[in-house]
Specification:
The complex is a heterodimer of chains A (373) and B (615). Chain A has 373 residues and is mostly beta strands. Chain A has 1 helix and 31 strands. Helix content of chain A is 1%, strand content 54%. A 5-stranded antiparallel sheet of chain A has the order 22-23-24-28-25, with no helix packed on it. In chain A, a hairpin with a 3-residue loop joins strand 7 and strand 8. The N and C termini of chain B lie far apart (97 Å). The chains are: A mainly beta (373), B mainly alpha (615). At the A-B interface, helix 1, strand 4 and strand 5 of A face helix 1 of B. Chain B: This is RNA polymerase II-associated protein 3. Chain B: Keywords: Repeat, TPR repeat.
Chain lengths: 373, 615
């Protein structure tokens, strides 16, 4: 009991009901604002900007777009511009300046079907490499765009001839520690996880996790690839150690299964501490996993931290090659905050512990998580 | 037992600790909020702009990329504002405007210009970010622009002054006399200074435009000394530059031969109408043609058309020229006959072709009436008797001869108002009886005006024909209810002598109330006292007006007091003012005590009440 009160607390600051379905929420970097992307009942897109005032979220601007918007990212634009790249249900990739949201700064018909996921790299927070946006769509392709090059994607990753198309459900950039290196991983609905090296334009590694992959995220985009968390459908997620790659076994993974047997929709690493991440589940709960500075006892209920093992590499006995050791993951805290699945979550990059998340009950919640330092 | 209490105490302590933690978190959050909103975030080290697009060799040279500056740019805090912040912006803007005014009066022009510029930028921001268009704010903006223009003239920054005045005339009010004069004045001073310093400007254009502005201003306000002086100056300059004479002459050359009381204002009007192409107001000068009978034969819908001409002209003394645009001509079609209705109006052209529905250029207007209903709302055109007394300040000169009665013809202005078709200048030339050119607005401009802001809408709305029945009046009123400016225009449309006939079933209290407010807000500053007086007289003659007076709210009475004190100040010891004032007031004390003691009412009121009761 005492232990329960020592763990990180989740304080919900504000619950806001919306008249549209939110699909994604993102903090606007370097500000106390966040943007909600979604769909009105009439099928048009909603972009709403809220600002935190005295702990309450105040609507600053609400814009209607012709098509429903599924996902967005600020990752590919600089701090000065803070343009929001959005993917919508028609397959259009639009980059908006939120101060002049009527006309997009960059617009292209990226895919023929809905853009399921989007990620940006090379802008805010990651200063290395060209600014790129990756989009993954139901048509099975993943495309990489550069806003400076119109109409022609930098890279297209599509299934081979004859192979069945699989929906791409998630994309994530990583390993962007210098101007040339970058890795893009894509997760598909059948459990395929493919990692592409954008420097050599080739497939780096692939695996199959048996359950459709809902969300994948590197712990940091701008360091040499270290760890990646992949969440999937049947309440399981896997943590891959990416430092060591075995030619046969690939990357080592630690697989964890939640008890509630629902889809784990998102995973988000805390920007300020890459060892803490949160997963959101279909039962409306958030699980915080990670590592705290002080020693915590093993029996913590449900806040997870990853713990590095003493030795990250060990030798495979058979062929004497290095195999990565992934360590352990601890649950730090867990809280059920909604009755519907929490489909989108975002940490504020400026304030430790401040987060916003949206659920299918058409509500967005702003919360602070304490004791994460 | 001890163990239990211990653990419960511990738990309680922890709960409290957590509560404190929560509070601390909240405080931290609020502090952070304040911090991040006020601070400009340190710009990140901008990525090297020379990183090529992946897969290409060289860095992209397209301008699609926002150029990454070499020096870190100070990042402005997110500029968008919530409605409350916008209100603050508006208040600030108004304060700055007042500051500018104060500086101007103390002749500190440099600072005045600074304050005005700040106010303008705030107002621009407000207008661009507010979700609705407020005419009051637009008025403020145009006023500040005008003030700034004046300040710039004092500072001898003539091109900027011209720019500001042009902006006012283009976007807000193309009849703003002050702006017209300022623009012309600045042009003249610019020319003079350029002559003295031998700079070769585009002086011909400047001169011609200055002259146009001044002439137009003169038409709007014939008594304006500044305008007159400048006009003399301009003419002098022009005389010394002979080449511009011919153009000016060409403009005024076509003077109609008959039917005009005076050629000059008309020609001015005409030139104005031609001049006004750049602005949004379109003026169609139609001058009286000739023989009605001749026309009858020509027009397709001949026989039963009774055509009435209305020229809603102000009383001779009114300086406001906006009246003339209300002139309409309407053919009142028989239902069976060809529904050719031709109205001429300044930007409202209702044309009905046989089978087409009436297309109203006032795009914003809700009068998407079918032809049938349109005829029902047809405006009757008043007898031309009133024209005999009108000044020739009307651009549309109806037949001034008494002979040309209601059958006098107008030139059918057939304008096809489907989306982007060309406006045809039809049939004017053949009428050789001295018709001047019709300055038909090019359609694209009409369409443009459609797409502009509510200011233009306001302008367009002003140009509708005056209501002639209570029904029309109410329709117009409903359309304009939100905007005082529009209501003002509407009320102005109604001739004082028409009040009694228009409101023959008595005027409802809220109308009277609003009309009084309009008087206070607009008539007092803008109109001549005479017009106000006449209107008041006319209003008081409306049926059952005494009843209205009896039921005045305190607000109405305050408005009445204001109006009359203004009038008295203007008119002096004119007894008639007092007489009319009496009609508008009621000694409440007597009323409050039981049933009205008729013996104690002032005589006029008594009479009025008696009359009304007997009806």
């Amino acid at each position: 009991m005492a232990d329960a009160l020592k763990k990180p607390q989740i304080i919900v600051l504000e619950t806001k009901s919306l008249n549209y379905t939110p699909y994604d929420v993102k903090w606007i970097p370097c500000s106390a604002r966040f943007v909600v992307l979604g769909q009105y009942a009439r099928g048009t897109g909603a972009v709403a900007v809220y600002e935190l005032e005295q702990g309450r979220a105040v609507l600053v601007k609400e814009i209607e777009k012709p098509h429903a918007i599924k996902c967005g990212t600020f990752g590919a634009s600089t701090l000065e511009e803070r343009h929001l790249a959005t993917g919508d249900f028609e397959g259009n990739l639009n980059v908006y300046d939120l101060e002049r949201p009527d006309v997009p700064v960059f617009s292209t018909k990226a895919h023929d079907l809905i853009i399921n996921c989007i990620d940006g790299c090379g802008g805010v927070g990651i200063q290395t490499g060209p600014p790129e946006i990756a989009t993954g769509s139901r048509d099975g392709t993943v495309k990489v765009w550069d806003v400076r090059q119109k109409d022609k994607p930098v890279a297209v990753i599509s299934p081979a001839e004859g192979e069945q198309r699989r929906d791409a459900w998630t994309v994530a950039f990583g390993n962007s520690f210098n101007n040339e290196e970058r890795v893009l991983s894509a997760g598909y609905e059948n459990g395929d996880l493919k990692m592409f090296d954008l420097k050599t334009m080739s497939l780096l590694w692939e695996t199959n996790t048996r359950n459709g992959i809902c969300c994948a995220e590197f712990d940091r985009k701008d360091i040499q690839m270290n760890k990646m968390v992949v969440t999937s459908v049947e309440s399981s997620f896997q943590v891959f150690d990416l430092r060591t790659r075995h030619p046969t076994y690939g990357f080592t993974a630690l697989s964890t299964k939640n008890k509630d047997n629902t889809t784990i929709w998102t995973v988000k690493h805390l920007p300020q501490n890459r060892d803490i991440f949160v997963t959101s589940s279909g039962s409306g709960s958030l699980n915080f996993e990670g590592k705290l500075k002080q020693n915590t006892s093993k029996n913590q209920t449900k806040n997870l931290c990853s713990k590095y093992p003493g030795n990250r590499v060990k030798q495979d006995p058979k062929d004497k090659l290095n195999v990565g050791v992934v360590g352990t993951v601890e649950l730090l805290n867990n809280a059920t905050l909604a009755e519907q699945p929490i489909s989108a979550f975002d940490w504020s990059p400026d304030k430790l512990g401040l987060c916003v998340f949206s659920a299918f009950d058409q509500q967005i919640r702003v919360a602070i998580v304490t004791k994460l330092a | 037992m001890g163990g239990k209490t211990n653990s419960s105490i511990d738990a309680a302590l922890l709960v409290r600790a957590n509560a404190e933690e929560t509070r601390r978190q909240m405080q931290e959050l609020l502090a952070w909020e304040k911090d991040i909103k006020s601070s400009t975030p340190s710009p990140s080290g901008t990525p090297d702009a020379s990183i090529p697009v992946r897969g290409t060799k060289t860095a992209p040279t397209t301008t699609a990329a926002v150029p990454r500056p070499e020096n870190p740019v100070v990042l402005l805090p997110y500029r968008d504002k919530s409605p409350e912040q916008l209100e603050v912006t508006l208040k600030q803007a108004l304060i700055l405007k007042e500051k500018g005014n104060a500086y101007f009066q103390r002749k500190v022009y440099v600072k005045a210009e600074l304050e005005y510029s700040r106010a303008i930028s705030l107002l621009d921001e407000y207008i661009s970010q507010s979700s609705f268009q407020s005419s009051a704010v637009s008025t403020h903006l145009s006023t500040v622009l005008g003030n700034r223009a004046m300040t710039l003239i004092k500072l001898e920054k003539y091109p900027d002054a011209i720019a500001d005045s042009s902006r006012i005339l283009a976007h807000f009010d193309s009849k703003n006399i002050k702006a017209l004069w300022r623009r012309a004045h600045a042009s003249i001073l610019l020319l003079e200074s350029s002559i003295s310093s031998n700079i070769n400007l585009n002086d011909k254009d400047l001169l011609v435009e200055a002259k146009r502005d001044l002439e137009f201003a003169l038409v709007l306000d014939p008594k304006n000394l500044l305008v007159k002086d400048d006009l003399v100056k301009v003419n002098a300059i022009i005389a010394s530059k002979a080449t511009t004479e011919s153009t000016a002459n060409a403009v005024t050359s076509k003077i109609p031969k008959n039917g005009l009381a005076s050629g000059d204002p008309v020609s001015q009007k005409k030139s104005n109408s031609q001049l006004k192409k750049p602005s949004q107001r379109r003026r169609i000068d139609i001058l009286e043609v000739g023989d009605a009978a001749a026309f009858f034969d020509k027009s397709a819908s001949s026989k039963n058309l009774t055509e009435i001409i209305i020229a809603e002209t102000p009383k001779a003394k009114s300086p406001v020229i906006s009246k003339p645009e209300i002139s309409n001509t309407i053919f009142k079609p028989e239902p069976a006959a060809d529904n050719r209705v031709i109205i001429e109006n300044n930007a409202a052209i209702k044309v009905k072709d046989k089978n087409e529905k009436a297309v109203h250029v006032n795009s914003s207007s809700t009068e998407k009436t079918t032809s049938k209903s349109f005829t029902s709302t047809m405006l009757k055109i008043v007898q031309s008797d009133s024209f005999a007394s009108t000044e020739t300040t009307t651009p549309v000169i109806s037949p001034l001869n008494a002979k040309e009665k209601t059958m006098s013809r107008r030139i059918p202005l057939i304008v096809d108002l489907d989306a982007e078709k060309q406006v045809s200048k039809t049939k004017i030339e053949p009428e050789s009886t001295g018709m001047t050119d019709l300055a038909v607005p090019s359609h694209s401009e009409i369409v443009k005006s459609k797409t502009q802001s509510s200011d233009v809408v306001t302008a367009a709305l002003k140009l509708t024909p005056a209501p002639d029945t209570m029904f029309e009046f109410e329709l117009e009123w409903k359309m304009r209810k939100s905007d005082d400016n529009n209501l003002y225009a509407l009320i102005k449309l109604i001739l004082p002598e028409k009040y009694r006939s228009l409101f023959k079933n008595s005027l409802e209290a809220h109308y009277v109330s609003k009309i009084l407010q309009i008087f206070v807000l607009f008539y007092i500053p803008n109109e001549s006292p005479q017009l106000l007086f006449d209107t008041l007289v006319a209003l008081s003659e409306v049926e059952r007006f005494a009843m209205n007076v009896l039921f005045f709210s305190s607000k109405d009475r305050a408005a009445v007091t204001q109006i009359f004190s203004f009038l008295r100040a203007k008119v002096g010891r004119d007894g008639s003012v007092f007489g009319v004032e009496d009609l508008y007031t009621v000694e409440l004390r007597e009323m409050a005590q039981g049933p009205i003691n008729l013996a104690e009412l002032p005589l006029q009121q008594l009479q009025a009440v008696k009359n009304q009761m007997e009806e």
